[in-house]
Amino acid sequence: MTEKASNFLATIIEDDLAKGKHDQIVTRFPPEPNGYLHIGHAKSICVNFGLAEQFGGRCNLRFDDTNPEKEEQEYIDAIKADIEWLGFQWQDEPKFTSSYFDQLYDWAVHLINEGLAYVCDLSSDQAREYRGTLTEPGRNSPYRERSVEENLDLFARMRNGEFDEGACALRAKIDMASPNMNMRDPILYRIRKKAHHQTGNKWCIYPSYDYAHGQSDAIEGVTHSICTLEFEDHRPLYDWFIEHLPVPARPRQYEFARLNVNYTVTSKRKLKRLVDEGVVDGWDDPRMPTISGMRRRGVTPAALRHFSDMVGTSRAGGVVDLGMLDFAIREDLNENAPRAMAVLDPLKVVLTNLPEDHFESFTAAGHPNRDDLGERELPFSREIYIDRSDFNEDSSLSRKKFKRLVPGEWVRLRNAYIIQADEVIKNDAGEIVELRASVIEGTVGNDAPEGIRPRGVIHWVCAKHGVKAQVRLYDRLFNTETPDRGGDDFMQYLNPESLTLLTGCIVEPSIAKAEPETSFQFEREGYFVIDRYESTPENLVLNKTIGLKEVWERKV
RNA sequence: UGGGCCGUAGCCAAGCGGUAAGGCAACGGGUUUUGAUCCCGUCAUGCGAAGGUUCGAAUCCUUCCGGCCCAGCCA
Q: Domain check: are A212 and A300 in the same one?
């Protein structure tokens, strides 16, 4: 691990370690398997696993599976894959809150015996009424003073399935007048006659998050239970259970501000809606802010981890600029992605001063400053493709503004000759269909001779040896900075141009041999990845991860 | 208007009584066969505001202003 930026959590842990409060810290990442992990979870994963790594501790993966109605095995598998892909390792086997159900049940009985929990027959509507409001205290439930014996009997019968869903619930007996709503006799167990993905039909009562979480932490010996700010008000309740139960350890909860990124939504409900309504192709659509979506788009684990470090961890809620993620992605890819050339919008150029059967091959570096990335061969013949946008008929364009090809002038073909544009061929509709140009002899690997001033350098691919490819360009899914802001209207901010399909692209031959999920920098275009599912050597499919940084004013 | 929390540059963020780190963005300049990378430089007399304590305050106190979270048998 490289040196980490200091943050309040690291400070607390350093302190605890220094004071000898713990020999080794234990954290945990506790997703509920009810959806795919997104960039906010990536941050939480980096925080929890990262802190453990940084301080020589351990981090558990624990599925917080207390609600069988929303959870599925598919999500469990996807979550494990995402964490591993990010490069983190959880301690031992993944844990499940559901594997503590027996212990949790016994502790609930303990609370009943202590007179600290009771079975309440109020309906959820009635319970809401009794709960009071933010500014008015609640009233005690009429069932609050049931005897221990009666509660014991009722709770056992709840477990045995003698009552319908919602008929009753086990509640903690705390304080209906507490200014903290979480302390107004919170629910410990509710009846759900649903099979559970882990425990099958063993249970028909399920513990609530509040009741299960801290005790699960205690069972696992978690020392620092790190969650997001919205659970802050739950901490007194978390502590209450720990104090009143014979738990084997006393974990502590700490909260940090969740990650918000502009132009994106990070709520499982909203992401699920994008998937369910077919706005995107699935949870791993490259436009999704899910870990699997970003992976498919070509974002790397290193980029995500670095991004997480960059934004830091604090208690101040804010919105991080997407540009920071972009930076982290470019930084990693710039360093590690081999270079190649690809023409996305091909325009044929015939080099008229070369013989019909001309063939030669240039050797180019795999990366401008990394010899270990090797070299590649660039076949070259009389016909090549350049990008349409690299030619403009208007030769009056200033050299400063248009550093590409115009009639009568020169450009350097990257890694090859300098050429001069001689003639523009158009079809009946007046569209440019071809260029005639000539190569300047002796300019490969050499500076331009006197009197020849190339306007710039452009990329190209040999027409005969280039390989066809399909390329998908992605733009942000939403065209407003705060799609998450309002209520349910985030769908109206969808960017209709978030996906552009390009089918006639030509890439240099070296690309065809690459494995799925390999990233390249197509010079002057951006970073692209070979699609992990749909690409084959015969039918190349590439996803644009992100463009190069462009500082000039893009007009023309 | 009950409770909890948060305000340091356009954005993120260190700082914990000794005179405002760092990153992103932006803006200048240099190198460059990628308008990329890389390199150099600029960017808070100021820490939400106003008072107070102190030799000294972003750090302590008071008041005020702004924002976020909580009334699921969700997590």
A: no
